[in-house]
Amino acid sequence: MDTTPKVKRESKNKIRVEFDRAPLWERIKAKFFSTFFLKKVVYVIFRFVLLIGVSYVILFPYITKIFNSFMTASDFKDVTVVLLSKAPTFDQYKYIITENGYLGALLNSFLLSFTTALIQTFICALVAYGLAKFKFRGNNIVFILVIVTLMVPIDAIQYQMQQYFNDLDKTAFTENFLEKINESLGFMNSYIPMYMLSITGLGFRNGLFIFMLRQFFKGVPDELEESAYVDGSSTMRTFFSIILPISIPMLVTVFIFSFAWQWTDDFYVTTFFDAIYLTKNGWPNIARIAKSVPPSLALATRNLPQYSSAITGTATILIALPLIIAYIFLQDKIVQGVERSGIVG
Fold it and tell me: Residue 325: inside a domain, yes or no?
């Protein structure tokens, strides 16, 4: 039984009236020199200092990259230059865009990332809806396999694939066998493998997308679907006309995540595209523009690794810029999607 004294509304009004009638100094002393006020001030100062420190740790590397992107090679030789260049220049941006094929990589990456993200969003939504709303034999097993895909690092998959294909190449029967199949089917140096992985729900991070969408669909009231079934709607029509429209924030979140991961992915690109194609025909992934220094700046980077790192940082800024712009316009949808998926931490 609660024994704590409760202050009635009349008592609160009486205390407030007495406080207003008290002398000014008494009111100031009671308000600003109390233990409660001092604790509040200490808490606010501590929180402010903590946020400033965390923000500094997080933002300082990015601020450094931005300032370094306007520096010349001579600035890195001058010990008096810390962040601000003595002669700011856009040469790093200029040569990365013109000589490293930034615009071509930007177009290729957009087409690949947009189409695969669109396919993955729809396929993952379809799979997640089935796992969340339909009871069938093996439902839990399929969901466990989805979770397993989240636990296996991509580096482990890459290592196993390399070991497997290296073992195949040791036999005379399978020598160049895979290459001949790829050449005959036209899979190598094309987007077909990417689309096949997306259509089958096995694309990059698709397990996470299925998990997020499943958590969201489990929170959708069953009454919505039951009312649609009573009106004669089929399962697929219910999915397209009722479930998808109310899932827009969640679908936008999954689309942005899929787009961003495909945008910077280098694993599948190097798996399905050979080095000669990537060199001669442009890059299907924009992340690869940071792999090389523009020829016009190569001479200046000799015996100057700091300048080479600055050029890589500038390329990273250009790579992340489209994602930053997309996040600025879609951040509300992303926050809503993460909240409704029930994923925290």
Answer: yes
